[in-house]
Amino acid sequence: MAISRKDSFLWGKAMSKLPRPERTQEDNLKSHTLEQLDYIQKQKLEIIPAIHNPNLKQHNKSVVKKRKFIRGKKKFNMDPKVGIHYLVENEFLDWRAKLVAEFLYKEEGLNKTAIGNFLGEREEMHLEILKAFVGLHEFSDLNLVQALRQFLWSFRLPGEAQKIDRMMEAFAARYCDCNPGVFQSTDTCYILSFAIIMLNTSLHNPNVKD
């Protein structure tokens, strides 16, 4: 006896040909929500260990600190007093003459004109810093011109005569300490040093005519 089409349908062969019901908007929303939750969970698993990682925390602190230090140097190059205040305030520098002088003498990336302007100020602390800064130079067994060249390489002379005067006084005192007996007095060394500076300025100033 032959099997009818109706019976073959009941055995399931034609079942696979039935169209799937379309997903509703609610189903799509649920699926999207589950995907988002799964993504968030994965992110948490990656982020939480990093948050509690002391090495990463220390690294981030170091990066922030380095950026602040660079910002302080940039501030110094634009306005030396403001820059030094920023560095002291953020504990990169102690407000002590010797330490500030060492910073100005050794730190790379500082504008030499800014250094000269800062050293030439007349406030008592600036005079102490200038003295300490000059003290970092070794002038032993150098003639006056050689010593001046070394000294003036570490900064650029400011344009104000009073600032130059203070710097030459400090230089003369240091030179005489390093080379006792070369000059009868620091005044002689100071006058000659100042004269050399003025002569050099005149020779290299295009506005000065013969």
UniProtKB/TrEMBL annotation:
Which SMART domains has this protein been placed in?
Sec7
Q: Which GO terms describe its molecular function?
A: guanyl-nucleotide exchange factor activity
Q: Where is the SEC7 domain?
A: 58-210
Annotated GO biological processes are:
regulation of ARF protein signal transduction
Q: InterPro entries attached here?
A: Sec7_C_sf, Sec7_dom, Sec7_dom_sf
What SUPFAM superfamilies does the annotation carry? Sec7 domain
Record's protein name: Cytohesin 4
The organism encoding this protein is Iconisemion striatum
